[in-house]
Amino acid sequence: MRYKEIWSDWRGSRPPRQVVMPGATAQTSGSVRTGGVAFACVRNRYLTWCCYGNMLELTEVSMDHNITPPNAVAIASCDPLLPSSVTVCEADDVVIVTFVTTAHIYRVQLPHPSAVAKDVSVLSYVTTDVIQALPHMLSLTVDTLSSSIVSPQGMFIVCTTRSGVVFMLPPHGGGSIVTTLEVPAISRGVVQRVWQGLLSNSSSAMTTDSVIDLVLISSVDDLVAIAGCRDNTLRLFSYNQQKVVATYAISEYVTGSADVVAMVRTKQSSVESARFAVFLSLLDRNVVMIFVMASSHELRPVYSTALSPECSLVTWQLSGAEVWLVLTNGDGDTVTMHGIHQSGVSSILMDVAMVTDPELVLSDHMSHRESYLQHISLHYPISVIETVVVSMAESDKVRSCDLTDMRSGLCRLVETEVQQRITGSCSPQEYRQHQLTHWDQLLGYIKQFHDEQLRPPGGLLLDDNSGMVLLLGQQCASIMMPYVNPVDTVGMATRDSKEVISDVDKLLSCVSTLSKMLMDDDMKVFQIEFGRHDDFDVTAASLAVEIVARGNNALLMELKESFDDVQNVDVAMETLIASFDPICKDDNEEITDDVVMVTVDDLYTGDVSLVTMVTSIRQLVSARIRLCQHSMLMFHIYKLVCSQDFSQSDHSILNSLSYLLQCYHSIHWLTVTTKQSSNSVDIDTTLGRLEISERLPRQQSVRGISLMEYLLRGRLGHVIREVVARRLPISGQLKCWRDVMPLFIKVTIEKCWGSSWSLVCDLLLSNHQYLHAQTYLSLLPSSYHGDRLYQFYLAHSLLLSDPDKSCDLFIGAVAMGMNEELYTYCHDNDDDGSCDPLLVYYRKVISLMEQVSSPPDHVIRIVVDALKLVNDSVLQSLLFKLQIQLNRYEAAYDAMVTITDNSSRMDCLRHFVAVLIDKHEWARLCGFPFSGMEDEVEDVIESRARSLDMTSTHSCYDLLYSYHVSHSNYRKGATVMYEAAHRTGIEVAGDSSMDTVVHLCKQRDYYVASLCSLKLCRHDYQWLVRPDSSNKEDLEVLSYDEISKEYQLVSAKCQLLWKHPEASPEVARSHMSSQEMMSLLLQYGLFDVAFQLGRSLRLSLDTTYDNLATRCVNLTNSLAMIQKLKLSGTSQSEYTWQWVGSNDTDTNMNTRETTVVDNAWMLLRKHLVLNYVKYQAIVARRIISMGTALPQWLIDQYKKSDAAGLLMIYISYNMLEEALLLATEYIDAANGDGPEYFGMDTSIATTWLPHNAFGCLATAIERTSQKLNLTEAYKLFMDKWNQCITNKISCY
Fold it and tell me: pLDDT tens digits for 665-710?
């Protein structure tokens, strides 16, 4: 079996956790690193080590799972470590690591990997022991083995100066005390020479029997240390017998003088499988010999092979069936070889195809910077990039574990170098050339650093559990992957035709000859065509003409002779092409119940194994691309050289090669294209992704992930594992992990190009890799382009970049109906299958458009097209929502009325009304007819109005009122306004804020609107029901007059608060009576409002007139005091005008300038004019009682209305002089002298006089003490009165 090397960055970039032993000091990792030997405890789980100075760094890596960091630990010892002194021992439940320093022996105990979780590192549970060694105990070679004979916890062996070897047995429970058993050699001198052979650096000090290397092997009933000595002998030290039990001369097995160079044993799982190997150096060759030890301490050789004498051994490993060696040849190059050892058979060691630096090809469809960055991030570990950036920038500030920062650092390095090189102006072509030069230099530095970390290897690992072979460097590892040349399968496919096989071999020789004729730039033409997706056949034909025209006659003749030797070129080409075909014939084979599946859940699931698989696929595909290119060129050159025309079969061959080139280029593109970061529009999903990323191992987030690796992590990986399990033999049970790799690679190529192309597209699109999905679809064969599922995926990928074309493709995909494949993809598992397939399809399309937040116009286009084919209330509702989202209210209304489902239509109606209300589109809302939905609209607006607080900026009651009025429903409009006024009064009650007056004004306006609406109704219907009536028994009917009274009370409150905001606490009280309101109005001097309220509510105005008269008298009396204090009238005038100015005094009727007192009396006069008959007596009595003379206008008014009443008031207040004057004037008026002043009608012959009042006046004068002062006036009165009596004037 052939092998080839694959790079793998598996140590990660997170620094190891440090464990410092007591008294020790940790060193930096910059010291020289040695070691790298690995140990595999379980399948594909490895423990590697390296040492520098006094530090031992252990790292655990799993190929099947991602181990959660920290998966590395650095142990600092007190003394420098000795090289080749680290051993690992696997016991039943623990793993023990021992290492030796110049003065101590250390033991590190770890739990067994099988006892911990798959993603948990055993290095998280490190237990260390320090064993104080004797001064003479020092070894350069140690070995450790877990033996059930002695101790399941492991035993290790060293050499001392006092004896041959010492078996050291650590205690089971830990601690620093060990049990030692010294086994002496033949003589003390021999042991002394052994010690000198181990420690002396001078070849003259070494004796012939010095120990070079030793191994520890368990036999049936003993533990034996086998030492290879410089005297070409193998000595066996027995643990039970405590002596050397056997000595074997190397000369018995090889001829010539041989020196023992190194020894190695297998990982012993049973006594019968215990083998060890010896590397011997002779003058003319190097020899590898493998021995097996029988039960009687007998050594039996089972394998022997010879190597070149120029090879030097670097490291080697031995398994139960294979031997692997890492050598350096005479040129200093590292060579890896392997062979299979069998009893009695000498096998030739085969070279492993070592990995070479990947070739960078710059294409036209990508910038040179992106080409370099993509090439570097995919082919080189992040640790190498970090080292280059840090070393060239000469600063630790750029150190980061993020690939994005590393890419930015590389760009800065190149730009800095370019700016330093360019001193003046340059053309764009020169600038581009400078950048290309420095990018090439940077890539060279990265390759150099990578070679230093990979070469020379520090250790070699053979995993018997999985068959894996790893070559360890300082930071990187090389995995030896089995490699099967596709040409090797030709014989298997055509085993009955030797002639065809011969023809294929001759064609391959032609390909080899053709490769010598090609120049470096020839094959780049194909790479350019890959980017343009042109016809490869045309490109190959033009290139073949150019190659033939270039004219290398010798090679052309050799090529023509090779063509002539081929008997049937067409059949040979078809056979060769068939070996390249990646599609398996049983690709669509169904898994039946009688097939026993192999468990492959953990197969290639870890990051390291996925990177390995992707690298393997890339290398294989690259090789096949070159082979197909050369085959196509060769076929064209064959036709040119032989002067033959192309037949139908020839075109079929060229089409097959073009198909294969397209196939492998697509696979290669998946392996070299980096996954883009996805930007999800769902915030919950984003947060969840961030939360998950915090728990992922660090190495997963610091390197570029190719699309192929990403696909293998998802559902495609599960599909591939199922196919691999179906094709594997049941007996294998995946024991040999490496042997499954070719099959896994083959199935991966099949699925990425064959039947699972839809799964690839689905994975790309579901993770927002839209541009990559477009490219992948364009790389698929043209025969797929007419497929409906292909059009669907292409439309999905164009949702963001070209939504118009995407809609065209979505609609066109089902223009001729659905097919089963498209329906299966769009079908939801929760669906019972009763839905229309077209409806399922359009729901899937709309769901995808919503995921990427497509513009509503494009979604509307899809929905409209869907409604032409299917009738679905969900789509109808969606159309309505999209239209209203775009503020297309008429279109939204049209969509709403067409909804067939009543429940959905009601939901949309509520949403429609709510949106128009929020947007203040009330006029537009009232303008829609809502045919058949009037009651629902009313209910929606009412429920929304009642759900809102009346203190909000706008009330839905206004809208509801407008709606009813616009539909001529005036009583409902009145009811709505009254309800709004009623609620406003209740909710605002108790609120003493400054906004109370605003809410009261709104309440007043509601009352006005309610009254106006009722006025538009017939007189019999000018009533409404109080809104808070809970049931029919409690119904309260309100008439127009009752509502008007409530309005007047609220209006009075508004006027009071507008002029006196400080009255808000009293006004805001709920259930304020009209009498209480009148008292507040009088308190703040709002007499106009009080008179209006009193008249409207038909209240008694006695108190109002009395209060106003009192204020007028008090204001008149205070005028003298104001003048006396010589005040300017500022503060006092403001106080007095505060109530006078709040009323309308009707000053326009006076032409002269008025004072405050004049305005107050004019206010009283105005209201007495309206109600003089009833209330003038109250005013007169109040004025006279306060000692103030009645104003003349009041006397004149009183004369006309009730002179007798005024006379009686004068008499009652003992104002006899005024009474006599009034009585005398009254008699004169009755006699015709000024009757108009007393309101007498001159057209009436009979005039009535108040003789009773006159009698009372006479009686009062007779009784008064002031009679002497009134004699003359009294005599005049009596004479006139008597004359009236004589003239028989009527009396009353």
Answer: 889 889 888 887 765 444 344 444 444 334 333 333 345 688 998 8
- Please indicate whether residue 502 or residue 474 has the higher confidence score (pLDDT): 502
- State CA 333 to chain mean position distance: 49
Task: Name the burial class of residue 909, with classes exposed (0-12), middle (13-18) and buried (19+) by CB atoms within 10 angstroms of its CB.
Answer: buried
Cα–Cα dist 537/640, whole Å: 14
pLDDT (tens digit per residue) in 417-450:
888 878 777 888 888 888 888 888 888 888 777 7
| Window from 362-366, 430-434, 757-761, 871-875 with minimum mean pLDDT | 362-366
Distances (CA, A) of 1214 to 1176, 1186, 1188: 19, 14, 14
* Cβ atoms of 708 and 769 closer than 8 Å: no
Cα 722 versus chain centre, distance: 31
pLDDT score recorded for residue 586: 47
CA distance 417 to 727: 55
Token pair 């100075």 is found at 53
B/e letters for 1006-1039, b = 16+ CB within 10 Å, e = fewer, are bbebbbebbeebeeeebbbeebeeeeeeeeeebe
pLDDT bracket for residue 167 (50, 70, 90): low
Scanning the structure block, which residue is given the tokens 């020894």?
A: 263
What is the rounded distance in angstroms from the CA atom of residue 531 to the CA atom of residue 538? 15
Measured CA to CA, the distance from residue 1170 to residue 1173 in angstroms comes to 9
Which 8-state DSSP code applies to residue 250? G
Residues 6 or more apart whose Cβ sits within 8 Å of residue 298: 246
CB atoms within 10 A of CB 549: 8
Please tell me the pTM assigned to this model. Answer: 0.67
Tokens of 71: 């998966």
1231 vs 1289: CA distance, rounded Å: 9
Residue 983 corresponds to which tokens in the numbers above? 């609620």
Contact between 311 and 328 under an 8 Å Cβ cutoff? The reply is: yes
Q: Is the peptide bond before 171 cis (omega within 30 degrees of 0)?
A: no
Residue 483, CA distances (Å) to 5, 512, 743, 746 in order: 9, 20, 11, 12
SS (H, E, C) 748-762: HHHHHHCCCHHHHHH
d(CA 281, CA 157): 25
Count other C-beta atoms under 10 Å from residue 1260's C-beta: 17
Q: Name the β-bridge partners of 158.
A: 166
Query: Taking a C-beta distance cutoff of 8 angstroms, is the pair 1207, 1257 a contact?
Result: yes
- How many other C-beta atoms are found inside a 10 Å radius of the C-beta of residue 1172? 18
**ω into residue 856 within 30 of 0, thus cis?**
no
Strands 34-42 and 223-229: unpaired
d(C-alpha 1129, C-alpha 952), whole Å: 45
The phi, psi pair for 84, rounded to 5°, reads: 60, 30
Q: What percent of the chain has pLDDT over 70?
A: 73
Q: How far apart are CA 545 and CA 633, in angstroms?
A: 10
Q: From CA 150, how far away is CA 222, in angstroms rounded?
A: 8
Q: Within a 10 A sphere around the Cβ of 162, how many other Cβ atoms?
A: 14
Instruction: Tell me the one-letter amino acid at 189.
Output: G
What element of type H or E holds 39? strand 34-42
Question: Across the chain, which distance is largest between two alpha carbons, in Å?
Answer: 190
Number of C-beta neighbours around residue 746 at 10 A: 21
Which tens digit of pLDDT belongs to each residue from 988-998? 665 555 567 78
Per-residue confidence (pLDDT) for residue 149, from 0 to 100: 42
- Rg of the chain in Å (alpha carbons): 56
Tens of pLDDT, residues 1112-1147: 988 888 765 666 554 544 454 455 667 888 888 765
Under 8 Å CB-to-CB from 1251, ≥6 apart: which residues? 1281, 1285, 1291, 1292
Q: What number of CA atoms fall less than 13 Å from residue 1118's CA on the CB side?
A: 17
Between residues 161 and 1086, which one has the greater pLDDT? 1086
Structural element, H or E, at residue 499: helix 498-517
